[in-house]
# Entry
Amino acid sequence: MRYLMLVLGTPHDPDLRPEEFEAAPPIEEWVGRHYGSGAAVIGDRLRPAEDAVGVRVRGGKVLVTDGPFSETKETIAGFDVLEAPDLDTAIAIASEHPMAYGGAIELHPAWPLDLDGS
Amino acid sequence: MTDPSRAVEDAFRTEWGRVLGAVARSTGDLDLAEESAQEAFATALRTWGRDGVPERPGAWLTTTARRHAIDVLRRRRVEAERVAASGRLGERVDPGPRAGDATADPVVEQVAVGLDDGAWDLDDPDGDLLRLLFTCCHPALPAEARVALTLRSLTGMTTAQVARAFLVPEATMAQRLVRAKRRIRATGITFRVPPAELRAERVVGVLAVLYVLFTEGYDAWAEPADVVEGSAERRALADVAVRLARLAARLLDDEPEARGLLALLLLQHARRDERVGPDGATRTLAEQDRARWRHDEIAEGLAELEAALAVGRPGPYQVQAAVAALHDEAPDADATDWPQILGLYDVLLDLTGSPVVALNRAVAVAEVHGAHAGLAAVDAVGDDPALAGYHLLPAVRAELLVRAGRPTDAAVDLRRALALVDREGDRRLLERRLAGITAPPGT
# Structure
């Protein structure tokens, strides 16, 4: 199974515990372990939403916008693509990420086009 | 000689989950596992009368289910390969990703795993049950689906039976189950015991599902069965939950909380026959006839609790079971060891921080330190938003106000409780209390 792991900043989360974030394992350790094992395939930090570029085609014209993008309370701070045998393995990997302590992680299962709609 | 249809019935009770779990683990497909288990039991009904009951019914049923699953998988593989082949013949200009690559087809991959003999280890039925239990209670599934899926998969209750027990239309329950199974496939939940670092919290999750199931059934024992729809089905859930807790305690024998949950359920369930009076009103513990409690079940619960506590890792279920044990052991209500119950509620509040626990603790405070202290403890949690709308908050307060000699204030709280209550048994109890307060003296 392939998962897109979104790394979110959640500054308004009332349950955030800064002291737990402080004590979380450093990102270098996570990267070393999971890119080293091949569980993480590709990933990066992302620039803030103000630097994002929107692209859409309407009426045959390419419209490029500079925002505003999703006005949520969360920001997408980074992403990684995981290759894991199952969800529990992906959850275990995600729960070791420092931003699981200091923000939130979302695991999005890949949905390959050749699946029969399930 | 064994009655064959009776033997199938017995096997259904004890083996359904194992048969289903074996196919689910080997194929990763819960729908196929259900279908195959059904097929195996149908075959047993047809043939056990003619050929005799097999020596090991569980192994016979699993083998039969396995054969059916393999047949289905073979047919699927043939179909998938036929589709792939016709795709290759089409030879479109844009081949698209992985088009025509039959070996990478997920259906074929899954079929290959299911057909692999190594995937079928028949000697670990308990392991299959445990994996099934963890899967059905997976936290990535919606809470109500976990309960339904556990019932359907571990006990073999039909969708219609599960629907009746939860008072929802069968179509709603069917959809809930279909969605849960779809989510298992889509998110990559596999039939496994969770990795070590997640195991402890997953055990908590499994036990929580069983406790919800029990509560759903046990609440119905405090209602007038003749007027409340679906009472018999809901009451039966409590019994099912006890069976599942017994199973969980055996499978998770290194987890004292699993045993603590079993003890708690046994010690509460033992009082079921006395929970509602002939007037259909819920009975308080003090009103129940203790001779009619099931003393064999209490004995079993006490033994389980003792074994759990001996491990030396207490948790919320063990502490709640200890409270239930003190109630069960008191020969009458006046003999209840309230100081010790209060001490246990202090521990439980520390462990859980739950406002419902704080409310129960307030009752113990009143018993030990008097109504005024109890009222202060109630009012200390009275503003908790989690208790807003909970009828037992004003109901407990009213009870303590009566004891404190403030019947007028108690009547106000009783009316508040009556406006919130949604359980018929509790409603009748509250009405009787209110009538007792407002009746003119001497009548």
In short: The mean pLDDT of chain B is 91.
